[in-house]
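Module 6 notes. Inverse folding takes a fixed backbone as the condition and produces residue identities as the prediction. Think of it as a translation problem where the source language is geometry and the target language is the twenty amino acids. Below is one complete input and output pair. Work through it position by position during the lab.
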């Protein structure tokens, strides 16, 4: 099975979620190469994109490297969302995604992200401005609502479709839940029933069994993988392959994971520069260790020690040395 966004066919129905500080270009490149149906940029502030903020432009990078290039815009003013859409297109965006789902206080305090679900009239005006300014398909990501007393995702989805949005993604929590408890996949079904455009379900899925249950309970057309991809940029593609054989990629073995970790690290140094690259890579290095622990290649004690070594290393050569030694130990343990 595949999903169409406007006139564009997407290669499979397992997407990588946009995650601030995670889905930068080095991470998206790997996820795309390993078969994710769609990879979405980190959230980009529309006004900062228009004014060519260097960090914002770096978040939106990817033209010619990931296809389709999806740039996610956030904002609270029609003018900036419209101009942001035009700039995103000029940077190579094939699809523009509107963020109305981010629960972070620094975003919602600025009346952006999921705060827009508190005022559907204003949210609709922002959608309209973005769609009218764009010549490429526009999608929308949202939550179920602001809180449990205002579950309005079906109504927002109906309005978005009427304005020309081509696909909606729904995280199965309210904003006030943040990431606590479990995502309510069944609640997404009301959104699917409200529209004719594709609906993507998001929240907590990390395995083939999860995504099968998510699809069954939500009735959604596809799924979006978020935090489960920490340390596993290949996960959306390998889940796509398990769900629909021939649509994704098989899971990498330990030796290939080693090569990917090294490649990812070098790409981050190139993307950010040495000093910022060292800092930005630390969380990914920590997740790499956790994946090896969770997969049984390291004991908990060994994982804690390796995480400390990698995150404390102050120069790239030492990180490379530790990564090689880390995978050497994991390989020895697997062979024992």
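Target side of the pair, the amino acids:
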């Amino acid at each position: 099975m595949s999903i169409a966004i406007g006139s564009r066919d997407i290669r499979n129905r397992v997407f990588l979620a946009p995650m601030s500080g995670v889905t930068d270009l080095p991470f998206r490149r790997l996820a795309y190469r390993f078969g994710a149906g769609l990879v979405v940029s980190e959230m980009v502030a529309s006004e900062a994109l228009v004014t060519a903020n260097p960090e914002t432009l770096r978040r939106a990078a990817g033209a010619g490297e990931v296809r389709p290039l999806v740039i996610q815009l956030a904002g609270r003013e029609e003018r900036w969302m419209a101009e942001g859409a035009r700039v995103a297109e000029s940077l190579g965006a094939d699809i523009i995604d509107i963020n109305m789902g981010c629960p972070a206080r620094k975003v919602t305090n600025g009346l952006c992200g999921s705060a827009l679900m508190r005022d559907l009239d204003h949210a609709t005006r922002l959608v309209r401005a973005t769609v009218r300014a764009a010549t490429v398909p526009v999608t929308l990501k949202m939550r179920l609502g602001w809180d449990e007393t205002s579950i309005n995702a079906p109504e927002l989805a109906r309005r978005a479709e009427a304005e020309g949005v081509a696909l909606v993604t729904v995280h199965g929590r309210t904003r006030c839940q943040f990431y606590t408890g479990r995502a309510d996949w069944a609640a997404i079904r009301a959104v699917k029933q409200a529209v004719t455009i594709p609906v993507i379900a998001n929240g907590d899925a990390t395995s083939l069994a999860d995504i099968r249950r998510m699809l069954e309970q939500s009735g959604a057309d596809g799924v979006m993988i978020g935090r489960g991809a920490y340390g596993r940029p290949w996960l959306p593609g390998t889940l796509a392959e398990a769900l629909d054989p021939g649509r994704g990629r098989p899971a990498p073995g330990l030796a290939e994971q080693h090569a990917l970790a090294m490649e990812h690290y070098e790409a981050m140094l190139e993307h950010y520069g040495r000093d910022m690259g060292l800092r930005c890579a630390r969380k990914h290095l920590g997740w790499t260790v956790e994946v090896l622990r969770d997969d049984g290649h390291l004991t908990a004690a060994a994982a804690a020690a390796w995480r400390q070594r990698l995150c404390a290393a102050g120069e790239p050569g030492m990180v490379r040395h530790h990564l090689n030694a880390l995978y050497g130990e994991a390989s020895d343990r697997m062979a024992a």
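Reference fact for the lab report: The chain has two domains: 3-243, 254-335.
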